[in-house]
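Need residues for this backbone.
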């Protein structure tokens, strides 16, 4: 094991008329969005998921169904808004129990087309492109001169506040970190916080597996690479070449690739004794069938499955977050308010039945609540040429 690995580590404490014609009136979905899924493939949410959302998000069953449906539509719409609003695009997010879609733009002339589509328009000062560029600059500085976790524990693009947020226990030190990047101060907002994220150490998503017969993590999602089956998980769980056994301690597979820090992802190739399935372990030992990996927008509900604490739900707070762990900075993770504990690492995050990512780390626990970060699944699939197993 390299120094980066500390298994069992405890959690630290967007011409109005022209654009309007591109959108489907009343649905908030760009005409360029991907085709609608076959009936039932994405809209029929298992009752156990609805029950968990009612419990953790304070929703009625009807509100949970409406929310998931609207979140899926918002996810379908996002690529079209991004393309057709162009350089003025400032992100999308959903709010409230019914997941009402908001589209940000820096061009007032575009707001009419947005509202005509059924979404809410918000005119802001910075495009998403500008915000992403600012965060990239912070990432470069962190790579050259890694900050301490007290200087900057994490930073992310916050589309709702139209800023890049830097979270720090030492705001003055955080400002020096920001100044070193050359980023426009008007784009960045410092939030004082004592949060100290750390990795959560620890073929159905959410089930336990063991690394080199000792440390425990959780399976993310079943995948294939050609004819080779396996699963994706967190990079901090193991190095390339490390062996795994399953929840039953039966020989399972070998880490084929692993990235940590900078990112936090890995994939394990399994032996012939293990068959990939599109399943994630849900509440009360039920299973959820994964149907795809469409990214859910900020504000969407998201649920997590892990081998320590099981099934818990919350919402997506921000995408494109950089977080500082003791081992180094992790880029491009998504921040949520779903709780987790050690051993849940690598486990599955789903929104409805869409795979979102694998658990990286966080703070707090499932007794008092916490913050967690997941590595989005689509970049993992792309990095290793993997295909997500779906049902």
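Answer:
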């Amino acid at each position: 094991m390299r120094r980066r690995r500390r298994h069992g580590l405890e959690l630290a404490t967007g011409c109005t008329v022209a654009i309007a014609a591109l959108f489907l009136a009343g649905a908030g979905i760009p005409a360029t969005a991907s085709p609608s899924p076959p009936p039932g493939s994405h809209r029929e949410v298992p009752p156990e998921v609805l029950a968990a959302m009612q419990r953790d998000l304070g929703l009625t069953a009807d509100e949970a169904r409406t929310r998931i449906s609207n979140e899926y539509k918002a996810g379908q719409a996002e690529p079209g808004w991004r393309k057709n609003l162009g350089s003025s695009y400032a992100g999308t997010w959903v709010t409230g129990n019914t997941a009402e879609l908001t589209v940000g733009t820096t061009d007032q002339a575009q707001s009419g087309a947005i509202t005509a589509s059924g979404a809410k328009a918000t005119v802001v000062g910075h495009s998403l492109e500008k915000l992403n560029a600012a965060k990239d600059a912070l990432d470069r500085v962190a790579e050259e001169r890694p900050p301490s976790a007290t200087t900057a524990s994490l930073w992310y693009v916050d589309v709702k506040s139209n800023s890049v947020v830097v979270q720090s226990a030492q705001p003055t030190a955080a400002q020096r970190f920001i100044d070193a990047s050359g980023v426009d101060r008007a784009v960045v907002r410092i939030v004082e916080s004592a949060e100290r994220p750390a990795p959560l150490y620890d073929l159905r998503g959410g089930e336990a597996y063991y690394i080199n017969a000792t440390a425990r993590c959780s399976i993310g999602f079943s995948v294939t690479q050609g004819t080779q089956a396996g699963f994706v998980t967190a990079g901090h769980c193991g190095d390339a070449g490390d062996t795994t056994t399953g929840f039953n301690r039966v020989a399972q597979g070998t880490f084929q690739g692993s990235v940590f820090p900078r990112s936090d992802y890995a994939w394990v190739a399994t032996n012939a004794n293990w068959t990939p399935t599109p399943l994630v372990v849900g509440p009360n030992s039920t299973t959820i069938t994964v149907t795809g990996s469409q990214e859910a927008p900020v504000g969407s509900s998201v649920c997590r499955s892990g081998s320590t604490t099981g099934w818990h739900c919350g919402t997506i707070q921000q995408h494109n977050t950089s977080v500082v762990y003791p081992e180094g900075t992790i880029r491009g993770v998504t921040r949520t308010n779903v709780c987790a504990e050690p051993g849940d690492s690598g486990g599955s995050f789903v929104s409805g039945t869409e795979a979102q990512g694998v658990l990286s780390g966080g703070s707090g626990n499932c007794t008092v609540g916490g913050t967690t970060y997941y590595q989005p699944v689509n970049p993992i699939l792309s990095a290793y040429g993997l295909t997500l197993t779906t049902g």
